[in-house]
Amino acid sequence: MHRFLAVVPALAAGLFAAGVSAATLTARVVDKTGKPLAGAVVMLEPVGAGLPVKPMTGIEISQIRKKFDPDVTVVTVGTAVTFPNRDTVRHHVYSFSSAKTFELKLYAGTPSTPVVFDKPGIAVIGCNIHDRMTAWVVVVDTPLYARSAADGSARLEGVGAGNYRLRAWHPALPADAPPPSIAASVAAADLEQSIRLDDVGAAE
Amino acid sequence: MTAVRDWLQRSMGARLVALFLGLLLAVQVTTFAALRASLSDHAHNELPARLEVGDRVLQSLLDQRAQKLIEGARLLAADYGFRAALGSNDAETIVSALENHGTRIGATESALLSTDFQLRARTSKHRADLESLVSRLAPQAAKNGNSSTVAVLSGVPHQAVLVPVKAPVTVGWVLMAFPLDARLASDMHSLSTLNVTLLARSKGSSPWTVRLTNLPPERAAEIAGSAWALPQAAGMASIDVDGEELGVRPKWLSRGDGAADGAAVVALISLSVDDAIRLPSDLQIALLAITLLGFIAFGCGSVFAARRVTLPIQSLAAAAERLGAGDFVTPIDGATRSDEIGGLAKSFERMRIDVAEKQDQVRQLAYWDSLTGLPNRVQFRQAVHDAIAAAEPDAHIAVIMLDLDRFKNVNDVLGYHFGDLLLARVAERLTEQSVRTGDMIARLGGDEFAVLLRSGDASLGLAVAQRIERSFDAPLVLQEHTVDMRASIGVACWPEHAADASVLVNRAELAMYAAKRRSNGALLYEPAIDVGSAGTLTLLTELRQAVERRELRLYLQPKLALDSGALVGAEALVRWQHPERGLVPPVQFIPFAEQTGFIRVITLWIFEEAVRHWTLLHGLGLDLQLSVNLSTRDLLDPELPQKFEALCDAHGAPTSTFCLEITESAIMEEPQRALAILERLSAAGFRLSIDDFGTGYSSLAYLKRLPVDELKIDQSFIRNMKTDASDAMIVRSTIDLAHNLGLTVVAEGVETAQVWDLLRDLHCDEAQGYYMGRPMPADEVSGWSERWSASRRRAAEPTASMRLH
Prior knowledge:
Number of helices of chain B: 27
Largest sheet of chain B: 8 strands, mixed, barrel
Shape of chain B: rod-shaped
Oligomer: heterodimer
Strand content of chain A: over 45%
Radius of gyration of chain B: 72 Å
Strand order of the largest sheet of chain A: 6-12-11-8-9
Structural class of chain B: alpha+beta
Strand content of chain B: 15-25%
Helix content of chain B: 40-55%
Order of helices and strands of chain A: HEEEEEEEEEEEEEEEEE
Distance between the termini of chain A: 19 Å
């Protein structure tokens, strides 16, 4: 169950009025306590027709020292990712996520066939024989995405005016939950948007 | 019961034993009761603690089990195939995977939950159960990563666990439920010895049902029935189940709350209070054994102790009885003990010794004469008695009694103190005379002494008596006084004179008195002395009767003038013609009569007869002077003179024709009185004659004062005067003396002609004797007189001496 965001309403700046110049949306991701959340992935998706994306190339998630590297990878839909095993031990890479269910049975080296992520969503990847190895692949459907910095801000540039959905995702979110989104209208002016992830945060 | 009480009253020992045993019993019972109470108390304090421990044990068991189940579930949930199945999003696949894997570890129900604990798939049909269960498990799972609880599913208590499915992060939760089975109860019991009963109810309104128990089913059912009484808080409740007290502690394993369907599981941890407070059987046996042994030991010990008290007491009681019976010789037991009994025994012993001493003193006083140190009368009598008792059949025992003559005079003249000293000297002298050992010399009291000859016949007794008599010849010198004492001595023997001690002593005394009367020195007892014997009493009676029945006969012995040979008088003598005994000689009754005083009757009879016969003779022409013997008694009878006078008057006989013969000794008995009577007799006209002159006491001073007319020389001098010169001399002197005093003299006992002639030559006046004539019945006198006259006439013709038969 999602709690919907307490949204600080954005200024619906007359982006249109300003002209066709692209705005920059700076998203600020905070956790439920309001603390800036670094490493979050923000995605801006236009409401209605989607923006064209192209698959990325050369993405690889390697296994080194019994860890996935990088732990979070953002790829666009259709990107093929390879999983080179740079460890001395074999790994059995798998994912049961609905975004991509695959397994690379116990192998060493690089599997010949890369894994294509053809659905937007979050795929959580693990190793069957190393319970601690976790990696996320965030498959985005929009070219507008960014990772939040330490201050929790993520700049999205070249955003045309229009209505969008701003999503934020963080690894700490529960695995089977869709990333929370808020509506965001972009006009000509740059804007900031805070997005709060209520399922994230130390509130122990 | 009363018999027992009586026995207890009589026996102090029994009371002691009963007391000790009673105390022991009381102590044991008290101990037992105290133990029980303490155990009960303890148990009641300890039992809740035990139950609390049981609670923790149960909790621990459940926790361990839960942990095991969690681990199992977690492993299962990590299974790749399982994760793959769960990730397949195919409901059927998921359910089958859940079933499969659940069965692997014994879960009866399994379910898959989303990361937010929403139920996604389940193997069971009871959604409501699971939802409430999940709602209980979720919070803890979210916190700890897993959780477990106890819940009722399908009415059965289950332990349910919730574990995450990690792929590799938590992608969901798996719930598995395992039924609680009997192993829980048995583990519980083996760990804690407590019983556990699980009660469950599916709704708040439904009754509790027993799901699991290691109590007997009926008990458990009963508890279930009363479960409503259980306190909500923890603690111990006491429930009476089937007569047994159970302590029960409820442990709520799952409460129906929240969704409030009221399903609940409660574990009742129970124990038997009765068992807990019962004295362990070996302790009971031990107490019983101790009690029994104690009884035996106390019984023996107290019997022993009691006897240590009662036996000495009994012994002392016996000793007291002995003392009471007079045994003061046997020492008392127990006087050596140093305790209270010893003190008592010592007192008894002191008393015994004191009494024995007193007894000795008393005996001393009782049996010994304090003045002389000789045995006293009591002892003497006892000695005589013992001697007779111990005597052999042929033995003789002699008793000598002696009495000091005129002792009273000594006391009067020289004083009582001197008299005492004198008695002591006499005692000494007697003791010097003392005979053999075994013989006893005793002072009987006053001036009486006695000697017991333990083996002595009459002759020995008499000899000893005479020896004693002779010992008095020597005067006693005492305090510058010389005292001549004489004693009268009587001798009596056993068995001749008496058969028992008192009679023997008595008869010795009689003999002594007789000796005293006769001034005779030593005298052997003869029956004639004894006035008290039955024989003599008879004699007295017979004598009396003799007078009445005229058995007495007057005999006359002629008295002749020596110069002329004429019959001038006769001595009146009495004979007794006893119907059975014949003629009883005077010696057999005269002395007796003198003793008894009956002589007076006899004398009077003789005198009267004499007077009568004088009258007769006078009628025949014979004028004889009749002589009548007077005894001492007669002499002291103040009425004698007038009686005699009266008799003379009655018969018309002149008093001067009667001569009254009196012995010297008779006069000397009581000279003054005798003199007075004689004076009166003389004054009355009677002639008075001294009989047996020369043989008794005589005082010439008195003699010259007595109004006597005649002396009769005793026959002892006359009889032998022919042969014995001294006798002849005495006779001649007596004749001269008499003539010089103006008295006539008569010779008694003339038996031969020579004596007759001699006497005639000596100018004796008269003679009497067998030569001339024996005593004859008074009637014969006249006849005799004629014959005598005739023979005298014949003799006068030739002057030859004649014999007359």
